[in-house]
Design goal:
By secondary structure, the chain is mostly helical. The chain has a domain of 62 residues. 89% of the residues lie in helices and 0% in strands. Helix 1 runs antiparallel to helix 2. The longest helix has 61 residues. The protein is rod-shaped and about 90 Å long.
Length: 93
Amino acid sequence: MAKVDISGTVLTFALGLGIGAVAALLLARKSGEDLRGDIADGVNDAAHRVSATAKQVRRRAQEVVDMASEQVKDQVQGAVDAGSNAYNAARKA
């Protein structure tokens, strides 16, 4: 099965979307002040969406790190217990 590079696809889509939005604004019949306002609004909206997405990604990454940390702790504790049991069994023999 082919590996798909999602980040590159999303980046390409976002770049195309941004270029299309700017082209639409530049080709619309509006005054310079209205056009600048529309561009500023679009940039602010995009910045807020990027910020929200970054927060979600950071939160999810922290969840994954926490889950992995718990699994490692469980594995280490299991290994310590097994070693302790083996030591005690060898000592009794």
